[in-house]
Specification:
537 residues; alpha/beta; five-stranded parallel β-sheet; 47% helix
Length: 537
């Protein structure tokens, strides 16, 4: 049950009746596309080819023994660490599972790489025992640039360290027939796990993309997937008992009423859940000028928030939220234990599909994600991209940096707008702390929602919302100078050039849509530079 006004509660109930009259749940499970009437042929094709996630709890429960056997093989072979090389849904779900459950005793330590920043890659490499690390190359399409570059880099490193062919140290998770599957066969990977192709990346946590890493962490797959299956079954039965259906109606109703900033608050053990939920919601709903902006990682403060907020509290039994009572409509989900995460994953996936139907958008496509990718490829190949004459860049250390920042925000950050800080820097404890301080300072002054995304991973998450969602976004892009650049075997460019091109590509994409953007050059000491900026508010 949501805590909100009687008027909003009545509208939510009206939308629930619409869902029941349309028999949306039944239509989803039957793959009945008639419920999506009014969509064009391309949208219907997209929807029909992206509903495999509904069957994941049942299908992968049947694969639990196979996955557990593979996990035992990896342990007995002597692998002490696992590094997942992915981007978007294929990496964010693993990060959540690792952070919530950790590695069981006797199981490998898990790392996730989803950044092209050279410093990030070197930091990961410094933590790995290359000879005893299993690398999982995770990509639905098999052609995603970032995982392919990671694979080429660490393939060369394994060969240097061992003097042997690296194939046995690599595993692929991808769709059948993809370039990655072909590469895995040609280079004799230890195994290629072929995922059902009708599952989109952000809906793939309960498939091989999430469940293989879960098995390698020592998580009880049968228990996790049984909880997910129980939740899935609840969406088939009495609609009035479906919390997923109700949550979807809440999100869509409140977004339509202007409360389109879904602020995710969790107890301590579940703090990284927002990483996955952020991509699921933003990329699914942020299109055609509509959408729900997930706000994760925010430290709630005393005081009144704007009337654009809707709060979701996620709490593990025995843990307190340890934040002030949210000031606005609030829904709370309580987990009896960590294995309820299985149910939570499915609940949110189903709710997002429901919200998409009510918002009259296709929740299973991502029409704007390709823009920045195309611009990145143009920059890397030397093809000129659009030239915007206005000077939108400033350097930290210049006298006018504070004045320019304040003027930019004063001019563009209106009530119920949001600020997106897009930081193309190494994601570590220090940068997270400094960006959080900056975020809190700006929120306190402007009373608006502020999101923080690390580049380029946010391009596969909130990047869709930035370009396709409501025209209420204001953008600060931050770039730095890496300590050391790294070559990418088989590529004519380095990781440093790649992340630079990704930042420029996204910059051009936002500017082409007349989005207010300020580019801040942080220099060689990004953490200190961010701290300097934060102290100016």
């Amino acid at each position: 049950m949501i805590s909100t006004s009687a008027e909003v509660q009545e509208t939510i109930q009206e939308n629930l009746e619409r869902l029941r009259e349309a028999k949306l749940s039944e239509a989803l499970w039957k793959r009945d596309l008639s419920v999506w009437k009014g969509r064009d042929e391309s949208a219907l094709k997209s929807i029909s080819s992206r509903l495999g996630w509904l069957d994941c709890p049942k299908n992968f429960l049947a694969k639990a023994d196979e996955l557990n056997a593979f996990a035992d093989e990896i342990r007995t072979t002597g692998f002490k660490q696992v590094a997942v090389l992915g981007m978007g849904g294929s990496s964010l779900c693993v990060e959540v599972l690792r952070d919530v459950f950790g590695s069981a005793e006797g199981f490998p330590e898990m790392f996730v790489l989803d950044s092209t920043h050279p410093d990030q890659i070197k930091t990961l490499e410094s933590k790995l025992d290359i000879k005893h690390t299993l690398f999982i190359v995770s990509s639905k399409s098999g052609s995603t640039l970032e995982p392919n570059c990671y694979q080429a880099y660490f393939w060369a490193r394994v060969k240097e360290e061992t003097g042997a062919e690296p194939g046995p140290s690599f595993v692929a998770i991808t769709d059948p027939g993809s370039d990655l599957e072909k590469l895995a066969r040609a280079q004799h990977f230890r195994r290629a796990f072929l995922n059902p192709p009708d599952i989109g990346g952000r809906f793939s946590v309960l498939s091989y993309f999430g469940m293989l890493p879960a098995a390698l962490l020592g998580i009880d797959l049968k228990q996790l997937l049984q909880r997910a299956l129980n939740e899935a079954e609840s969406t088939k039965a009495d609609h009035r008992a479906s919390t997923a259906l109700e949550f979807g109606a809440q999100m869509a109703t409140l977004a339509t009423a202007g409360r389109d900033k879904l602020t995710i608050v969790t107890s301590h053990s579940l703090r990284s859940f927002g990483y996955w939920a952020e991509q699921l919601i933003a990329e699914s709903t942020g299109k055609h000028g509509k959408g729900i902006l997930p706000v994760e990682g925010e430290t709630l403060a005393e005081g009144t928030y704007g009337d654009d907020r809707f709060f979701l509290a996620l709490r593990l039994a025995g843990e307190a939220l340890d934040v002030p009572q949210p000031d606005g409509p609030t829904t709370e989900f309580a987990l009896a234990d960590k294995y309820d995460m299985g149910a939570e994953f499915f609940r949110w996936e189903f709710a997002v599909a429901v919200a998409g139907w009510l918002l009259e958008i296709n929740p299973f496509d991502e029409p704007n994600v390709a823009e920045s990718k195309e611009n990145t490829n143009k920059v890397l190949s030397g093809v000129p991209v659009a030239d915007f004459s206005e000077d939108i860049s400033i350097k930290v250390g210049s006298k006018e940096v504070s004045e320019r920042l304040h003027d930019f925000l004063d001019k563009n950050l209106h009530p119920n707008f949001y600020l997106a800080i897009m930081a193309y820097v190494e994601r570590n404890e220090d940068s997270i702390i400094q960006l959080s301080m900056l975020r809190e300072s700006i929120e306190a002054k402007y009373q608006c929602a502020v999101t923080v995304g690390f580049g380029p991973r946010f391009l596969h998450s909130t990047g869709q919302f930035h370009k396709g969602g409501p025209n209420t976004g204001v953008f600060i892009q931050m770039t730095d100078i890496p300590k050391e650049d790294l070559p990418i075997p088989t590529k004519p460019f380095t990781f440093g050039k790649l992340i630079e091109a990704q930042a420029e590509g996204d910059r051009q994409s936002l500017l082409s849509k007349s989005k207010p953007l300020l580019h801040v050059e942080l220099g060689k000491e990004p953490v200190r530079a961010i701290g300097t900026i934060a102290s100016g508010f």
